[in-house]
């Protein structure tokens, strides 16, 4: 069994094709979802809300049309929440650009990108559905085409049957 010192930070870890998804819960709310590399082993949920989240993550990984229903801890600035709400409205199988979201929230594409990178609830708030005007764009504050996180974004878009971003 591979072990990572950060393993104990999570209240559950779900295996995924690209690695894993770490879940952190606190006081009956989900506090964070994190994309993790394959060096993290699965971890059984330690509480009811983590178990609920793990089951929902597994359902999404099996069916990209699955819709999350989780108690998310309130977090983020008013602006981030406005951006995250706009992102949450993007249907599965579609993408919008940072500029598209910026126009909806009356801001700038760079500010939208920063809010996307600060998203504590990826998958639930599907920031992978936001791309650059001329290609894939970055993901989780990473923009190197060969980075783990950009690879996760590619996998998620392929999983949701979005063409052109492999």
TrEMBL record:
<keyword id="KW-0227">DNA damage</keyword>
<keyword id="KW-0489">Methyltransferase</keyword>
<dbReference type="GO" id="GO:0032259">
    <property type="term" value="P:methylation"/>
</dbReference>
<dbReference type="Pfam" id="PF01035">
    <property type="entry name" value="DNA_binding_1"/>
</dbReference>
<dbReference type="InterPro" id="IPR014048">
    <property type="entry name" value="MethylDNA_cys_MeTrfase_DNA-bd"/>
</dbReference>
<keyword id="KW-0808">Transferase</keyword>
<feature type="domain" description="Methylated-DNA-[protein]-cysteine S-methyltransferase DNA binding">
    <location>
        <begin position="78"/>
        <end position="162"/>
    </location>
</feature>
<dbReference type="InterPro" id="IPR036388">
    <property type="entry name" value="WH-like_DNA-bd_sf"/>
</dbReference>
<dbReference type="GO" id="GO:0003908">
    <property type="term" value="F:methylated-DNA-[protein]-cysteine S-methyltransferase activity"/>
</dbReference>
<dbReference type="InterPro" id="IPR036217">
    <property type="entry name" value="MethylDNA_cys_MeTrfase_DNAb"/>
</dbReference>
<protein>
    <submittedName>
        <fullName>Methylated-DNA--[protein]-cysteine S-methyltransferase</fullName>
        <ecNumber>2.1.1.63</ecNumber>
    </submittedName>
</protein>
<dbReference type="InterPro" id="IPR036631">
    <property type="entry name" value="MGMT_N_sf"/>
</dbReference>
């Amino acid at each position: 069994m591979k072990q990572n010192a950060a393993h104990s930070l999570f209240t559950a870890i779900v295996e995924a094709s690209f690695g894993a998804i770490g879940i952190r819960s606190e006081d009956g709310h989900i506090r964070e979802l994190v994309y993790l590399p394959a060096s993290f082993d699965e971890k059984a949920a330690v509480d009811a809300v983590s178990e609920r989240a793990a089951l929902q993550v597994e359902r999404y990984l099996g069916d990209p049309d699955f819709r999350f229903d989780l108690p998310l801890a309130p977090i983020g600035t008013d602006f981030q929440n406005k951006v995250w709400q706009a992102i949450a409205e993007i249907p599965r199988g579609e993408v919008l650009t940072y500029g598209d979201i910026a126009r909806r929230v009356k801001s700038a594409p760079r500010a939208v990108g920063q809010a996307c990178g600060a998203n504590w609830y990826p998958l639930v708030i599907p920031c992978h559905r936001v791309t650059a005007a001329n290609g894939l764009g970055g993901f989780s504050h990473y923009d190197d085409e060969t980075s783990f996180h950009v690879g996760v974004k590619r996998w998620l878009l392929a999983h949701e049957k979005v063409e052109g971003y492999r």
